[in-house]
Amino acid sequence: MHDRSRIEKGLYWDVAWNPITGCSPASDGCTNCWAGTQVRSGRTPAVHGGTDFSQVRFHPQRLNAPTHWRKHRAVFVCNMSDLFHESVPHENIVSVFSYIEAAPQHTFMVLTKRPDRMLYHFRGGLSRKFPVLPNLWLGVTVESPEWLWRLDDLRRIHAALRFVSFEPLLADMGKIDFMGIGWAIIGCESGPKARPMAEDWARGIVRQCREAGVPVFMKQIHRMTPPGGLRVSKDMNEWPEDLRLREFPGG
């Protein structure tokens, strides 16, 4: 059962789990990184432990937190980092997955802009292959057409569910191959320097999802504010009716 108040706020997960924090740009979608802005502004000192977001940190004391949560939660893994960042040692990644395996009562979501490294690890690049866990969903961010290759890497990894996040959506995606993809998330960029998202870009994705039978979660869109500014809206009542979609895999 999904928490209605959470969904109304545009969140598709219940709790963030950050055994690793810190990151560096991987592509144009990182230019106005929300997590980096939070850390550099000092708004999340307890999460990262400093204001240098480029410093990737491992927090082993946080690893066992999900094992203490008894009731099912949808867990976003490392929303303040990228688990497959090149500065995250292999053994740290293995530790994170061992605790995912130890907490089968939850659903864990791993989202990366580095699926090539994720593929390397799942194929047993440095040790045994990672197991295909029934409570683990794997996803990639695709913010513009030049990064659609990330879906190709994702398809080569066995997972309970593969998903794609078009957030921030920065361009018309054109033709998308949704083969093997079980869920799509769409959202505009947030923050004072947000680049505008055209509603028709989102409509193009929604149309292709409908054709492929892929559920769509529309997280947020832009609304214009005078004189010509942008405001992020997570309130579906403010949106065009055809974009009021907050669907989950399995109904």
Tell me briefly what this model is.
The protein is α/β, with parallel strands linked by helices and 251 residues long. The protein is 23% helix and 20% strand.
Descriptive account of the structure:
The chain has one domain (4-243). Strand 4 (74-77), helix 4 (90-101) and strand 5 form a beta-alpha-beta unit. Strands 1-4-5-6-7-8-9-10 form an eight-stranded mixed β-sheet, covered by helices on one side. The protein is 23% helix and 20% strand. The mean pLDDT is 94. Helix 5 (115-122) runs parallel beside helix 6 (149-155). The protein has seven helices and ten strands. It is of the alpha/beta class.
Give the key terms:
251 residues, 7 helices, alpha/beta, 23% helix, 8-stranded mixed beta sheet
Order of helices and strands: HEEHHEEHEHEHEEHEE
Tally of individual domains: 1
Strand order of the largest sheet: 1-4-5-6-7-8-9-10
Classification by helices and strands: alpha/beta
- What shape does the CA trace take? globular
Terminus-to-terminus distance: 10 Å
Return Rg in Å. 18 Å
Could you tell me the strand content as a percent range? 15-25%
**Percent helix among the residues?**
10-25%
Stretches where pLDDT is under 50 for at least 5 consecutive residues are none
Total beta strand runs? 10
